[in-house]
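Re: beginner question about structure tokens

> Can someone show what the tokenized structure looks like for a real chain? I only ever see the sequence side.

Sure, here's an example I had lying around. Input first:
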Amino acid sequence: MVKSINSVILLGAICTFVSCTVFKLSMLPSEVYNTLPNFTKSKMISYQKAEEEIEAHRCKYLVKGRDYSANMGLTVKDDLKNGAKGIDDWVDLDGGNTYVLLTYRWEVLGDNVGTQLHLKFDTMLCE
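And the corresponding structure tokens:
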């Protein structure tokens, strides 16, 4: 009997943890800025670093202020992976190798049916 109660408690704890992870509607800024570069082939730099590189003639802007709506994923991490793929596609199409993430936001769709990630970024070509 005690073993079965412990199993139910453990199962409840696991379900609670998984549901919190799966049904998360966004990420903290630190999570985005620490995770996104791991999902892209292109190099992510800060706006301040981009300005320094432009001034030093080591980079040039290709497209400023590109808006991209990522395909929906099952989780916000999947949204971020899809956003990363879109960033890489645009950086490649623009002939660059670097991007500056300007803004991001998650839009909750329907009655919490899911989320969609919207990104705004610059593409650059750097040495």
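Each token stands for a local structural state, so reading them left to right follows the chain. The chain has one domain: 25-126.
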